[in-house]
Every structure is written in C-alpha cells, then in structure tokens.
Amino acid sequence: MVDTTPVVVEALRTPQGKNGGVYEDVRSEDLVIPLVNETLTGTGLSGAEVDDFMLGCAQQRDEQDNNVARIVSLLSDLGESVPGTTINRWCASSAQAITSAANAIQVGQRDAILAGGVESMTRVPFPDAGADTIHPRISEVYDQDRLRMGMTAETVAENYDISREAQDEFAVRSHERAAEATDSGRFDDEIVPIDTPDGTVEEDEGIRRDTSVEALADLPTVFKDDGTVTPGNASQISDGASMTLLTSREFADEHGLEVLAEVGNHNVAGVDPREMGIGPIPAVEGLLERANRNIDEYDLVDLNEAFASQCLYCQQQLGVDDGRYNVNGGAIAIGHPLGATGARIPVTLIHEMGKRDAERGIATECVGFGQGAAIEFSRP
C-alpha cells in the first residue's frame, strides 16, 4: 500500500529584513527564487519531479499582483512544467499553503509540492485599515478604527488585563532568545543567505541585542494615547520569504530524502475581529480535539508574535510554559513579513524539534480580521 503521509523534507527561509532595510531594492520574487533553487539543490530533485508550487502572499497587488508563485516557477530552476498558485489567508497565508499541500499529498493527488510564502512590506506597503477598499458595510457592523491591528492588540490588553510591563518584558525576551539562537548558530540550517545590490544578507536584521525593559518603557504608544502597545512590544514590519518541500512518505523513501517532520492535524478558527490576536486559542484547541491530545503532549509551541499582549494571553489560556513557548524568539525580534510568517514559523519549529529530539510541536498564528490557524508537526 502506498504511504501518502505528508512529510517535510526541506525547510528554509531568508533572513528577515526590516522595513526599508536590506531588501529595499529586492523584489519579492527574488527573495523566493534562492529558496526554491536551494531546495532543489539540497534534495537533489529536478523541477520535473515537483508537482505544484503553493505560495502565500497577503498583499497581492502592485509587484505582488501577478501570481508570484508562477512567476517564480518560470524564473527559477523549477521551470515551465511546475504550475503555481498564490494563496491569501493574511498572516497564515503560507501556513495555508502548507496545509493545502499536505491535504493534496495525503489523498494521493500529488507526490511533491513546494509550499512557502513571501512578503515585501517595504515595496508593497500595508494599507491603513480605514482604506476605502474595505466593503462599506463592514463599518455598519464594526468600528473600523478598532479593526486596525494595533487597536486589536490594545483591546486584548485592556479586556484581559495584560500590563505594559508584561508586554515589554515579553518583547525583551523575544530579542534575547532570537539573538542567542543567531549567535549560537541554531538558525544556520534554516537560513539561506540572500544577495542584494549592497551585499549578502546572512542574518535577521531586526534583532536588537541591546534592548531592555527600561529602554522599551520610554517608547510612546502608537495606537491609543492611554494604551500599552508600542513599536517595541509589537511585531516588526519586514520583508522575507520561507519555503518547505512536502512529499508523501513513499516519495521521500523512493528518492532517499531525509524526513524532517510529518505534517499532522491542522485547524483554522474565527473570532471577533476586534480581538484578532486571540485566534490561536480556538485554532489550537480545535487541533488538540482532532488529535485527541492535550497541550502538555507537545514539546514546543511557536505562536506568531504579532503583539506581546496577544501572545501573553494566548500563552495563559493554552497553558504553555515558557520553556516550550517561542524558544527562539519570534516576530517581535525576527520580523513578520505577512505572507511568509505562516511557513517561517514551521521552518524554525521543525529545525528546533530536530535539535532537541522533540517528538511533537505546534505552529500557530493569529490572522487579520479575526482568524487563527494551527499546524501540528511530529518527528518520525
């Protein structure tokens, strides 16, 4: 019997760049192409052996408007025979690419799929939540100002009593953990250096090694005069790409590929968009119900650090201790290129699971306009 269990055989990402930083002159496609080519080189596969390419991208307009996945196929070592689709579930766009790929493999429709994501928030800026592109009836149901990402973080902090000091402490921890992971070489296996007109980028640009709770306490709030959310305890606007190669276990065995992880249960959920950041709670709870497990059976949990307030509340409600939670930091330090994050988190999680000989892990994200997504990974 053919084993169609979906497995990850490669997991890579670019270093993350700051808004207006090292990737200012690099198009989104040119962040993805090196990951695609390195994946093929590292696995010894040709483009002809890849069935499909699924790429997450949240801002599909301007330079990112022309089915980025297909353009990358044509410009990379994949070639004309590999079709491509570009997927949008906001911050979980590339997580959706992974789950869609896993589903297609599991039912025997495909054998090998590249699944990842990209976002250049420098070259394709994120619009204000009050932009007139939003359906006008939304304003009849919700105060649109409260749907702005920063305001949702303020709402979570206020509704669930998450203090400014706790948020700043969490942010400092993120930078400390990301810096330690970088300096100790724990990110080396997942990062592909990217050549730019100004040189080669080899590590995440946004990590602040010298930050402190005292320094963050001096930052002004941005979204609300008497609020608690600042640029220091929120995710960084950034540029980057991420990539995984999923195959069936049968395909991996036949081609002599190392299995990094199996893709297990996954789940999505919807919540009040005014509390966008709590989406990981029902997403993970639903996953646990599907898996018939509790959170203590997972060695690592990585939750996107959109804002410290929602990270802290989700951690409390899910019951994850600090020793298993975002152990290498997260988007507050590393960055949050919207379409890339949903796969960047699994890339980092899977490599860390291998280093720790961990059996199971969960990657989860909150998603704009009130959603959550979660994926379970296990090591064979």
Features:
two-stranded antiparallel ribbon; 34% helix; 12 strands; ten-stranded mixed β-sheet; 380 residues; 20% strand; alpha+beta; single chain; globular
Could you state the oligomeric state of the chains shown?
single chain
Taken from the alpha-carbon principal axes, the silhouette is globular
Strand content: 15-25%
Structural Rg: 19 Å
Q: Average pLDDT value?
A: 97
Uncertain runs are none
Straight-line N-to-C gap = 19 Å
Our count of helices gives 12
Query: Total strand count, please?
Result: 12
The share of residues in helices is 25-40%
H/E element string?
Answer: EEHEHEHEHHHEEHEHEHEHHHEE
Structural classification: alpha+beta
Largest sheet: 10 strands, mixed
Kindly describe this structure.
The protein has 380 residues and is α+β, with helices and mostly antiparallel strands. It contains 12 helices and 12 strands. It has helices at residues 28-43, 68-75, 93-106, 138-141, 149-159, 164-183, 213-217, 249-254, 280-291, 308-318, 331-334, 338-356; strands spanning 6-13, 17-18, 52-56, 84-87, 112-120, 194-196, 199-201, 238-248, 261-270, 300-303, 360-367, 371-378. β11 and β12 (371-378) form a beta hairpin. α3 (93-106) crosses α12 and α5 (149-159) packs across α10. The two termini are 19 Å apart.
Task: Explain briefly what this protein structure is.
The chain has 380 residues and is an alpha+beta fold. 34% of the residues lie in helices and 20% in strands. It is built from twelve helices and twelve strands.
